[in-house]
Specification:
Blueprint (H helix, E strand, L loop, with lengths): L2 E6 L3 H14 L4 E6 L2 H10 L4 E5 L14 E6 L6 E2 L2 E5 L4 H17 L12 E6 L7 H14 L4 E5 L6 H4 L8 H10 L4 H8 L1 E2 L5 E2 L14 H13 L5 E5 L6 H8 L3 E6 L3 H20 L8 E8 L13 E7 L6 H9 L10
Parallel strand pairs: 1-2, 1-3, 3-4, 4-6, 7-11, 7-12, 8-10, 8-11, 12-13, 13-14
Antiparallel strand pairs: 5-6, 9-10
Helix pairs in contact: 4-11, 6-7
Length: 354
């Protein structure tokens, strides 16, 4: 991931010289835009999704005009100054590698504030797959959805938060980083969290980005709901993905329900069996009651997918205000890969994007 930097200075010769050096030494790390006009620089923050704006100290920048999360610093010609207008000061006349490191610092401070799930239209849509039923193939359906949407040309991130995660069964790619490294970075509150997360991402042959499962299943117990909120918010902050598909175990804990409330869409998986329908209805009734007393809104964003559905032993629920968007049969004697391939061809995943 390249950090997008906008430089604002009246000295065009300096801008051209600095931009040229950045493009030569840090072309793989920085995407640099230069401006001599304040209005054009401010407009670029949203148009080009600028991460860091560095303005010459004679300009007086109003960050409220950015309309998005963007780090701000000021150029100064005087060495030794730390702050200008309560923002980081960067001396213009020093080694380029020092300026580069200071830009990374401003970016890291900014990125650390991208801490929660955003529902803004220009952010990745968060789709959470969950189920109170158990054993109905929620993870398989979520992985199939990620692949189906990637096949449609969407940039998809798949995040599996099961205690005994199965990500590496569904997706393969080179690299040693795992979800354990992600959790360590979240817990240690590293200033360069976004960059660390980026370094842990793998991409499958289908084009789905993901984190590998934890090294030990116990590691996932270290992640809190606040950590999950921060993690998804930071993935959104990368501005690399159209959609983040999350496999999240169901719970009636208020903090988890509040997390579900932030999703653009919630997909509940059910097999329609007597036991699964009973479990779902108990969960559904509880959520309806909790919505009356707590700051959560879940039902309105819920859709149902029936998986492992049997015409003989399964039954679709009819007395609920949740739309069913599709269903799939039980695939006997099939491998995980064969099941996923069959699910991706069902067609109902397209409706999630609508």
């Amino acid at each position: 991931m390249k950090i997008k930097v906008a430089l604002l200075d009246k000295d065009k010769e300096y801008l051209d010289r600095l931009t040229g050096v950045f493009n030569t030494k840090y072309a793989d790390k920085l995407e640099v835009y230069s401006f001599t006009d304040e209005k054009n620089a401010i407009e670029s923050v949203k148009e080009y999704r600028i991460d860091v704006l560095i303005a010459e100290e004679d300009f007086d920048i109003d960050k409220s005009e950015f309309k998005r999360n963007c780090g701000l610093a000021y150029f100064t010609g005087t060495p030794g100054i730390e702050l200008i207008k309560n923002e980081i000061a960067i001396c213009k006349y020093q080694r380029v590698d020092v300026i580069f490191k200071q830009i990374l610092g401003v970016y890291s401070d900014m990125a650390a504030n991208v801490a929660t799930i955003s529902g803004e239209n220009d952010k990745s849509s968060v789709v959470i797959f969950t189920s109170p039923c158990g054993g109905v193939g929620t993870s398989t359906v979520a992985a199939a959805c990620a692949i189906a949407h990637a096949n449609m040309g969407k940039k998809v991130f798949y995040l599996n938060l099961e205690q005994c995660g199965t990500t590496d069964v569904f997706f393969q790619a080179e690299g040693n980083a795992t979800m354990s490294d992600v959790i360590y970075s979240l817990k240690s509150r590293k200033a360069n969290l976004l960059l660390k997360l980026e370094s842990c991402i793998k991409q499958s042959q289908e084009g789905v980005s993901y984190f590998s499962s934890t090294k030990v299943a116990l590691d996932i117990l270290e992640i809190s709901y606040a950590d999950i909120d921060t993690l998804i918010g930071n993935i959104q902050g990368m501005d690399n993905y159209d959609e983040i598909i999350v496999d999240l175990p169901f719970s009636l804990e208020i903090e988890k329900l509040k997390l579900l409330s932030k999703a653009w869409r919630i997909i509940v998986v059910n097999d329609g069996s007597q036991l699964s329908n009973y479990k779902f209805m108990r969960a559904y009734e509880s959520v309806v009651l909790l919505e009356q007393n707590d700051d959560i809104n879940i039902i309105r964003n819920m859709n149902m997918i029936y998986n492992k559905f049997s015409n003989k032993n399964s039954e679709m629920l009819s007395n609920i205000s949740i739309k069913t968007i599709g269903g799939a049969p039980r695939y006997e004697h099939a491998t995980v890969r064969q099941i996923i391939e069959a699910l991706t061809k069902m067609g109902f995943f397209e409706e999630i994007l609508q």
